[in-house]
Amino acid sequence: NTISVIGLGYIGLPTAAVFASRKKKVIGVDVNQHAVDTINKGEIHIVEPELDIVVHAAVTEGYLHATTQPEPADAYLIAVPTPFYHDETGSSHKADLSYIEAASKAIAPVLQAGNLVVLESTSPVGATEQMAAWLAEARPDLTFPQTHGEDSDIRIAHCPERVLPGHVIRELVENDRVIGGMTPKCSQAAKALYKIFVEGECVITNARTAEMAKLTENSFRDVNIAFANELSVICDKLDINVWELIALANRHPRVNILQPGAGVGGHCIAVDPWFIVDSCPEEAKLIHTARLVNDGKPQWVLEQIRKQLDAVHCTHPAKTRSDITVACLGIAFKPDIDDLRESPALGIAQQVATLGCKVQIVEPNIEALPAKLQADNVSLAPLHQALTQADVVCVLVKHKPFIEHADQVRESKHLVDAVGLLG
Ligand code: SAJ
Q1: β-strands 25-29, 2-6: how paired?
Q2: Residue ranges of the domains in the chain?
Q3: Average pLDDT, stretch 227-246?
Q4: Which segments constitute the UDP-glucose/GDP-mannose dehydrogenase C-terminal domain (predicted)?
Q5: Which of 24, 159, 191, 214 is catalytic?
Q6: Dihedral of CA 396/422/317/381: which sign?
């Protein structure tokens, strides 16, 4: 059996490699020639613990190869991005299905009767049906479940990925999977495919419910983080320590409040709830508000930093902006990873850099500053140096090395602790 994975990013590549590690022939397809070349050398173009070892073994043992052109296979897994875009009014966030459309059109010429096509990309409700329609349009000689039900030539399902970045290899194997076929036979075919490596349970539903399940999981987390973030802003106004408050409230047996932070980053939780809001704008009031609360948090943190800058000016009137150094502790989108995608901390650091002060970035998980932060007044610094030289210290991500040095951070005179490092 040959499996083809379309899209060799943070989800597609680990999935392809794990199938290959079970001695299945896997064809990885990506439009990015650099990614394809890197993988064929047995190397990886993304950062994820253990992934390098699994990919290296899969390629050298001959089970995985990458290409830019789809080749015939028995099953196709589509794991391409589904970002959002703003419509003409600029107010609504719409799912961009163009990568799914392009992937469907790319595999259509090599599809054969008996094939299974699984959409893994997180998608708005209806996207799997849309994918099936694109495939049917490109291959009128084949039959599809939307018109031929269980008798169709091609089986189609949605099986959303649910792995946590940083733990992908383990979670791919251990997590339960939601399998949403367009018909029961489609579900059974997809379940048989995932059972090759999934040790968790593969729970069957229909495609629309599977799409909504994934959006629901991430919206649940977003709404709960928004609750914590809103509390942090309220507590600041009421002069209450929010970290102590949450720890106290969480002693209640049925209360489990998450942690306030610099905002919600990454490419999932800050995106997926918008797909629900776009489908049901009138009804999804709470989900919409949670998005606005979380998206507004970096601006609030920035205000706190500005207040500390003003405080430095008050105590040292002779200092100009360019004499002041601000240390930003952490720019990744969450603790203990190097992933800067959609990172609120990175956005805050960028804004601080435009204020005219010197900025020292402490990010133990990266070796060079991203292009967005390359400016004369910005440098990457070790923690000790930044704590010694900075007038204002802002903790934006709760990385382990910062927790270990919390006592030194606490000595800073002008401190913004967005993540409760000091409790
Ligand atoms: N965050 C907080 N406070 C918290 C928890 C998280 O501010 O108490 C912030 C983080 O700092 C980060 C953001 O939220 O900026 C998201 O981080 P996360 O760890 O909650 O989630 P992701 O984006 O790394 O991965 C999520 C996971 N979904 C859920 O936990 C419901 C993962 O299982 C999904 O597979 C992934 O989204 C995805 O790809 O959809």
Answers
A1: parallel
A2: 2-215, 241-417
A3: 98
A4: 327-418
A5: 214
A6: negative
The pick from 264, 272, 297, 417 for probing ligand 1's pocket by mutation, whose C-beta has the most ligand atoms within 8 angstroms, reads 264
pLDDT of residue 188: 98
Return the ligand 1 atom nearest residue 261 CA: 7
Between the CA of 292 and the centroid of ligand 1 the distance, in Å, is 16
Sorting pLDDT into bands at 50, 70 and 90, what band is 420?
A: very high
Q: At residue 295, does pLDDT exceed 80?
A: yes
11 CA closest ligand 1 atom index? 39
- Rounded CA-CA distance 402/409 in Å is 8
- The yes-or-no answer to whether 2-215 and 241-417 have a common fold is yes
Does 241-417 carry CATH code 3.40.50.720? yes
Ligand 1 center to residue 264 CA distance, Å? 8
312-332 residue pLDDT tens: 999 999 999 999 999 999 999
One of 24, 159, 186, 268 is an active-site residue; which one?
A: 268
pLDDT of residue 418: 98
- Confidence band, pLDDT 50/70/90 cuts, at residue 421: very high
Q: Which atom of ligand 1 is nearest to the CA of 217?
A: 31
Give the predicted TM-score (pTM) of the model: 0.94
Backbone phi and psi for residue 163, each to the nearest 5 degrees, phi listed first:
-80, 150
Assess whether 214 carries a catalytic annotation. yes
What's the pLDDT at 196?
98
Q: Are the CB atoms for 242 and 235 separated by under 8 Å? A: yes
Of the candidate CATH numbers 1.10.287.130, 3.90.1150.10, 3.40.50.2300, 3.40.50.720, the domain formed by 2-215 belongs to 3.40.50.720
Q: What is the Cα–Cα distance from 189 to 30, expressed in whole angstroms?
A: 24
- What is the Å distance from ligand 1's center to 269 Cα? 6
